[in-house]
Amino acid sequence: MGALTQADVITILIDILLTYTISLTLRVGLLSIAPVAFQGIGAYAFALLTLKAKMSIPLAVLLAALICLVIAALLSYPLGRVRGLYASIATLAVVVIATGLESGFTFTGGSLGLAGVPHGDTRVALAIIVVIVVAAWFWLDRSELGRRLDAIRLDPSLASTLSINVGLTKAAVLVASNTIAGLVGALYAHSFFFVSPDSFNFFVAVQISAFAIVAGATHWAAPLIAGGVLAVLSAEGQNYANYTAIATGALMVLVLVFSPEGLGGGLRRLTSRWRTSARGLRGKGTAAPPSGTDQAGTLVAVHGVTKSFGGVHALNDITFELPARGVVGIIGPNGSGKSTLLATISGLLEPDSGTVTIGGRELTGHDARTFASAGVTRTFQQPKLILAMKVWENLIVGAREHANAPSVRAVADAVGITDVLDAWPGELPASQTRRIEVARALLREPKVLLMDEPAAGLTEAEARSFSELVTEIGKDRLVILVEHNMNVISAVAGRVIALVEGHLIADDRPEVVQAVPKVRTAYLGIVTEVTS
Amino acid sequence: MDTFLEQVVNGLGLTGPILLVAMSLLTALAATRVLNVAVGAAYALSAIIAIRAATDLGITGFLLAALLLPIVLLMVMELVALRWQRKRSDDVEIGGFAATLGFSIIITAVAALLTQSQPVELPSDFLRVQQHFRIGGVTIQLLPIIVLVVALVITIVWAWALRHTKSGKQYRALAADHELASTIGIRTGNVALKAWAISGLFVGIATILLLLQSRSSSATAGSDVLLTPFAAVIAGGMGNIRATVLVSFFFGIASSLLVLVTSSAAFQQVLVFAVLFLVLAIRPDGLGGRKQSGRRAY
Amino acid sequence: MTEQGLVIERLTAGYNRVDVLRGCGLTVGYGEAVSLVGPNGAGKSTLFRVIGGLLSVRSGSLRLDGEDISRGGPNRRARKGIVHVPEGKCVFGNLDVAENLDLGAIALGYDIRQQDLDHVFELFPVLKVKRKQAAGTLSGGEQRMLAIARGLIGRPKFLLLDEPSLGLAPLLVRQLGDACRTLREEGLSIILAEQNLGLVERIGGTAHLMTWGRIDRSTPAASIRSDEQMAKAVLGAELMES
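Predict the joint structure of the above. Result:
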């Protein structure tokens, strides 16, 4: 191995930083290759500011980074809107557009680029930025913010129901990643006399994203190691550039096939034994602090709600009001609109007409997060837990920390899952995962807890002990329960709402509702035979 | 006015290649939900080898190399990367896309090794199609029209087959839910491999027709061939054939008309991808795209 | 003398380092109905995934008519006449009902037969009404019926139903039970994993109690509530007292 030249060292440091910027986007489940475009934007901005505006070097570097920050912020709205693969493609569009503009305009020197950029040794500056980025990432791995980013990557739809602002978080990550890349780009221009569009094109972007994919996003050291090794390889092997490219591409494919979380995933598994344990959780505090709605009045009011899908009325002029405490059951045949009603109350669906009021605030038309912050939390038909996180991590992800927050241990005790806090949710039976979901919901201090068929798939014995839990929970807050199991409904609900074909046909005590002829025929069949 | 018309006709000529490559992308997408970025690199390498074959072996060699190599390359990708990824998880959209990026790096590097990064050209007398005819005041080249017709025929046949044939239904079932498709008895491995082979065949046809037009290739020729069709597929909603065809025509004609405004070719791709970016910003699932989430109605 | 039907012996299987099935044995002859009951986590779904080919056998044997079928993926099991209707998502939402049914035959390599189609429409009339509708727009219960119908199109020998009553209103559960009974009378073997004892009783046959990855006890389905040990495990102790 030959000695590395100054230019090699700079290239390696820059590649490591760019690997970090792309890895950061992988952390929230995106694959953004835009950092390479922003490296170019920063580099061109620096070149133009120094050459045309004759600006001093430190000022030009800062201003170039600032320009990138502004452009990144402007782009973050459309980029944050698109999901999954489309987001990667949109960032590819940014790369193609940026290089196209750079080589199209004359003031950027066309395809030849700009030469004579003020030159200096940037090794120290770049090394300092590397240290800062590594330190920030080290902190991220241990913080609540890091866990939120993980939740967004592992299950974005779940993350948003946990009142994590997915769009804003992704946008912020993109802005951070692109701005750092812009700063790096300015230093790149300062290091190498000239800038040209070819240094920031599609092929370069693909190469750096290969580094990032090999590194993965889940360990602070991974981009440093993977980006560093691959960058040294390609710097050392300039005469064999094509062979190193083949090796890089092959490594990238191998990582994707055999270890999709990359080097970081492996490192994290190695260290998880002593890092992720429930032992650090706060042991004191109460399970259910006062929910704040002591008044006896109406908590949830649904007025004249109608919702149709393609001409079919799923809900037809539904009106009811629910108090701040107690358990209310919703029953009805399949397709009668129960799940739609639940989705309307939790803000996942907007009604065609009518209003939904929670705690005196009309929330119709607001998104699920607004409903969540008004105190609405839900559990799902199929328990939604992040399988790559331990139970205790599932419980606290996205939960707000404040002085009066319920203690995780106390809630786990109350719900009966203390023994499995350190287990992986994938290894637990349904009876346990339902309880974990309930615990997670309770930690969000809900005023209204919506449960979608929580007893489905439980044995009758399990269902009975689950009913006791629901009754207990309903003493301090409103629980709305969609359920087929009449035993559970009768045991826990003080009031039952029956829907048939989108119409509310009964709203009364369970035994009264069960006696309504329409309920008997449409729903229960011969009730004694099934539930005896 | 004449130059305007001429550019529109020119644009129709540009549409053929866009549509051909777009169909190749759509085919792999239809069965496996993977957007294959390596199509560009596969084109570049196949074109380089086809040019060698044309020089050394004549027409048969040229046709065989151009048609078979992309099929083999794409089948290898499916077998090596996607199949294994799918064993781990059903969600291969981003992973598969990234894996084809990796293949794109490898294939481009191999092509660069073969050519020492120099462009290669077809022999000047090899299969020259220079016929043209005039309608009104406009000269129309024959070859671009042939390309467009071939592309349209492939599109129509494929769209019909996807809806009505047994294979088509299997492709769609596979794309919807891989594990379920396997559970009900579909030989998912074979079906996915077949889809990628067909996608490779379309790349092969594109290689022949595009080479006859451009008459040269290089290791990095793939990105020019790939990027506009790629944008058309995404803007069309990743899987919606009708919307993809419309967007392809729009891109072809708009790129051609751009010549009237600016002389720089660099702005063509800026235009295409700016449109794509706008489409995604306004309708995040593309123009013809349905909402990705398989929402239950009730 | 050749062995007839599906025979499972000393089967172990599981996920990661955990064995979920621990020496499980089960025999299902042609035209028989077999129900698996028991607590969650006992391994019912896991057993189905193994029989359906979604999960590989670690040890023990899985034979059909004496032939070892423990190797190969789910599509090979389907071709041997074993149709698995999994729990949860079970239809192709973006295809319409008719296409979903078509796939039941296409998947096995032949065209759909009109008589088979008529037969499933007779069992589940709602599917005929909605045959041009995208499967994803059906209600949960209708999707489950569609999945069963799609399985029947392939003329299976064994039908594996994993918690078919999940999310179904009691009336639909009764209809489903009647349909299964009819199918059984026509010679189909049905293997059912179910919490809803009403459905188990309606379909009839034998009920097996599954706990801790093996089968502990078997009774006729009709007497499932009167068998003390079985009822204790499934219904819980309290109900016995009352």
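Residues 289-294, 525-532 of chain A have pLDDT under 50 and may be disordered.
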